[in-house]
């Protein structure tokens, strides 16, 4: 069964600090890895999409990495802001219409 | 552009009642999806559509029906609501999917459904 695990479940950091969120997946076949940001009461918004051949992709202060050999990904947030408080969801895609979603990491950025 | 919109935002139903959730997108996307999100779980695909007049089952289709009569609209129906269908429902849309499925899915704001 395809699965995506995320850690930590929740994280609290101070504004301006960096943090790294982890994701591991067992999806076969594997095509791409995505990270979404979901604000409370809103729908998810795409941050990055990486194919199995890509190791890293950035979107502003967000940098995602992918190790397809160990089936792990990370999302690094630099110089956190209050607006970064949200749930970050890792998604592994096996085919065009098979997305397996993680349960998310709830990030809280405090002033 | 409004992107993806969902109607209603919140609804309370009694067990056995029926309702329809409406999703609309103005990005001319071919593909549309319905997901449900439950506490502590990842989003799960209910049904999806690859074009006007077509629908297909996702991971958790039981108890739901869908229709895509117009390209811009995707309806999710509950014929006889059950408490287990209490959830937040998200609609998403995307362009035609490539072989590697690298399309970006754009999500609506969600519909909160409570079944008593």
How would you summarize the topology of this molecule?
The complex is a heterodimer of chains A (111) and B (116).
Chain A: E1 3-7, E2 10-14, E3 19-26, E4 32-38, E5 45-51, E6 56-59, E7 62-67, E8 72-77, E9 86-95, E10 98-101, E11 105-110
Parallel strand pairs in A: 2-11
Antiparallel strand pairs in A: 1-3, 3-8, 4-5, 4-9, 6-7, 7-8, 9-10, 9-11
Chain B: E1 4-7, E2 10-13, E3 19-25, E4 31-37, E5 44-49, E6 56-57, E7 65-67, E8 73-78, E9 87-94, E10 106-107, E11 111-115
Parallel strand pairs in B: 2-11
Antiparallel strand pairs in B: 1-3, 3-8, 4-5, 4-9, 5-6, 7-8, 9-10, 9-11
Number of helices of chain B: 0
Number of strands of chain B: 11
State the share of residues found in helices of chain B, binned by percent. Answer: under 10%
Number of strands of chain A: 11
List its traits.
heterodimer, A: mainly beta, five-stranded antiparallel sheet, 0% helix, B: mainly beta, seven-stranded mixed sheet, four-stranded antiparallel sheet
